[in-house]
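Note to self: user wants both folds in one dump. Writing first protein now.
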Amino acid sequence: MRGFELICEIEPPTRPDLTHARHQIGVLSPVTDAFLIPDNHIGRATVSSIAVAHEVQTMGGRSIACVNSRDRNLLGFRRDLLTAAAYGVEEFLFVHGDKPTAGNRTSDLTVRAMMDEARAASENPVFADMPAFRVGAAAGLRPLPTWKRAADFLFVQVSYSVDALLRWRDAHPVELPIYAGVMVLASAGMARRLAATIPDIDIPDDLVHAVARDQAAGVEAACDQVLRLRDSGAFAGVHLVPVSRYRQVATRLEDLL
């Protein structure tokens, strides 16, 4: 049984170069229990999350590869499972995927279908003698569908309100590990973009004003939120998105933890 876990999301490479990803992993490793690797982040093409997850493991870390349903059909997803097994990548977060910057969704593949397919792999002779995949899903601050309760873990959407996260947790007393979403607010412009794209998000005006005056305020607020969620005992950990402030986040969390 793991204690309170800090799962840090890294910015995935949009060029065929892993240098920046490796730097983020190296800087954050002292304070991080696992790394989440996004998949075609915010609708842009990135290096495969499975390949980067393998890189994390090569560097001695634990990885969770995010896989979105938006860009795949069933055959493509089965390819991803084979690739993950070949690389020894065993943990996934399945998501719907952000709206693509160009074009349409590839297919009608759903998060639920990906979960079912990953579960079925354990019965497939192709995956014999390999550990079963550990699969998670994302949840909004809304009622939790029954099928998501069958996941191995849940990532709850980013919120800037500890009270809102705790109210949601109290209303959904499931036994599986749940990780609360925390994101560093890097600028006032970022606040506007988040408000336009994430349903039900509430970013305090005083935080937006503080970040407009001093960008370090966003790092301080996120790290404080991590500690408050840890001390609440309500979550298995947090999913922390440091964005471009990963150096500052690592330094501050080393001081606090």
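First done. Writing the second protein, which came from a different request thread.
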Amino acid sequence: MNVHDSERVAGTLVSKGYTAVATMQEADLILFNTCSIRDKAAQKVFDRLANFKALQKQGKKFGVLGCVAQQEGEAIFKRAPHVSLVVGSASYARLPELIEQLESGEKKVTGLEAATDEAFETDYTRRDHPFRAFVTIIEGCDKHCAYCVVPFTRGKERSRASASVLTEIRHLVELGYTEVQLLGQNVNSYRDPSPAGLSFAELLVAAGAVPGIERVRYTTSHPRDFTPEIVRVMGENPVLCDHVHLPVQSGSNDVLRRMLRGYTREHYLGIVDGIRACARPLALTTDIIVGFPGETDDDFEQTAELMHRVRFSGAFIFKYSPRPNTEAGTWPDDISEEVKAQRFAILQQRQQEMQAEDNQAQVGTTMKVMVEAFHPKLAQWAGRSSSNRVVNFTPMAALDVLGQPGALRPGGYAQVRITKAGPNSFVGQQVN
């Protein structure tokens, strides 16, 4: 989602006559797009700003965009005096106007408007990913989980009209894209504001029906809005990628209640049972937070047990850090860094062991892989399966690498028989 924000910003500026350059040394204006979902990410912003302060002497100007900009506001000017521009995500459309203010001589310029109730639209986007195109269908979040800063930096949920989404996807096909990824802070909370009134599941089907589209992905889902209809359409439509990312955050009902997640362990496991009953196998990945305030040893063991029961295909595990404006941010951060690190390491190791074991079951199967890059030293191509697994594979013939007719190319597809599996990737051989 942050990558796509950068594409939107770049597209807006290019449409107004600005030119993107390859290095900071060539630039007149340097923009830092930021994330504040965790404290570590926010601190990186100021570390990087400090590293490049010397460029100010060359007349270059600096801007901070995104969630840290929205969260910190004009305080950024005090912490990083060489910054001239602070712009939140709701003000990206105004960037050319704000930059003109800098060019006219203003020293400090801000764009910190609150997100509006109007549906988000992508007017100009520069596509940086050569194979996968991102399409935002919903912005903001209404869930207000106790630890999460997103509702304060991104505003309330605003969905795009389904016709606008589908028009963008058709345009992407014209540009040569065959895979799209639908984006939103809670993507399955999508509510079509137009008279068509499509549900999220219906939008998935409509996106997959656009001629020329071979894959549709989506990120990220919330358990409160994950319906059996979504599973049903994924089972019926092979163009919908067989991968669900569904953050659980904790396996303890006590912790989930304090997190204000709005569901129980039992509810989540019921969703998992529905996903496992899908007409075709779906890979399931998740997010988990360790060290949330008040998390006991028993709470932690319940999370570890849930992971063992579900056997996720992948898990992003994070150590809790307090965020400003959140409810949990006012509570004592009473789990030591040492305990957080221990719990993180335990879950990470167990998850890697389960992934290694479960991936072995894929040896001998055949996967359709989107080709992304060639590694000359290994004489292998690399790509991703529909379930978002990394696959490194040997082509059928050396001529395939040389650009002969029918050769593999980035953005194309190959059928690959899996010959070896590790915890994070597969190795295989291309087959007819």
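Dump finished. Worth passing along: The CA atoms of residues 171 and 350 lie 43 Å apart.
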